[in-house]
Amino acid sequence: MDRMNLEKFRRMPFRNKIQWIFNYYGLKILAALVGIFVAVYFVKSVFFAPPAPDVTVIMLTDHVTEEAAVRYQQELSEKTGKSIEIVHYDARDSYGMQAFSVKVGTDLVDLVIAPEEESSMLAENGFFLSYAQIPGTDDYMGISRRAQAGEALQTVMEYLEVQLTNAENG
After folding, report:
1. HSE (CB half, 13 Å, CA atoms) of 16?
2. pTM here?
3. For residues 29 and 25, what is the distance between their CA atoms, to the nearest angstrom?
4. Are 51 and 85 spatial neighbours (Cβ–Cβ below 8 Å)?
5. Distance of CA 58 to CAs 14, 41, 108, Å?
6. pLDDT score, position 149
7. So what's the pLDDT on residue 170?
8. pLDDT tens-digit map of 128-161
9. Which residues of the chain have pLDDT under 70?
10. 22 close to 29: Cβ distance less than 8 angstroms
11. In what order do the strands lie in the sheet with 139-144?
12. Which end of the chain is more exposed for a tag (fewer CB within 10 A), N or C?
């Protein structure tokens, strides 16, 4: 800014100064704000991401409600003292089937409860270490290759076996 324009700028009312600055530097300021937002979001998502749950279970069933799955999650977290995540999808819902496939595809699942067809497909693709039918139900329970053997996983499996048998039988 040359001397003449600087004097003119100094004599402007405050509102006009703000308008002049915005007109002259507006896009640069906007670009800087967007850049700062992206940088903060990136740093926050990489360095301050919430810890992964100790055990992640995905359920694709039509005889367990979302409310029951939330209750199972709370009871198991209290019982084991670990972070348990139970994600429930309705087997009758096409969205549930797609969401189930996406979640399994992330390979961040320890235990899968699903109908025979989906369980067989996952087993054929090498997703499971082992899987078997839950007694008294049409569902199968499979342990993923990612799963870490431990007391929490064993407790979750035993608890869910009982709950699912009870849910389907009565």
Report:
1. 6
2. 0.67
3. 6
4. no
5. 60, 28, 10
6. 67
7. 62
8. 888 999 888 888 999 988 887 688 888 999 988 8
9. 1-2, 4, 149, 169-170
10. yes
11. 84-90, 55-61, 111-115, 139-144, 128-133
12. C
143: tokens are 């342990």
The three state secondary structure string of the chain is CCHHHHHHHHHCCHHHHHHHHHHHHHHHHHHHHHHHHHHHHHHHHHHCCCCCCCEEEEEEECCCCHHHHHHHHHHHHHHHCCCEEEEEEECCCHHHHHHHHHHHHCCCCCEEEEEHHHHHHHHHCCCEEEEEECCCCCEEEEEECCCCCCHHHHHHHHHHHHHHHHHHHC
Token pair 């906007």 is found at 30
**Are 23 and 9 contacting, i.e. CB atoms less than 8 angstroms apart?**
no
Structure tokens at 54: 């100790």
Tell me the two tokens of residue 82: 């670990």
Measured over the CA atoms of residue 109, residue 111, residue 115 and residue 120, the dihedral's sign is positive
Per the structure block, which two tokens stand in for 154? Answer: 């064993």
> Which pLDDT score is estimated for 20?
85
Q: What is the pLDDT of residue 71?
A: 93
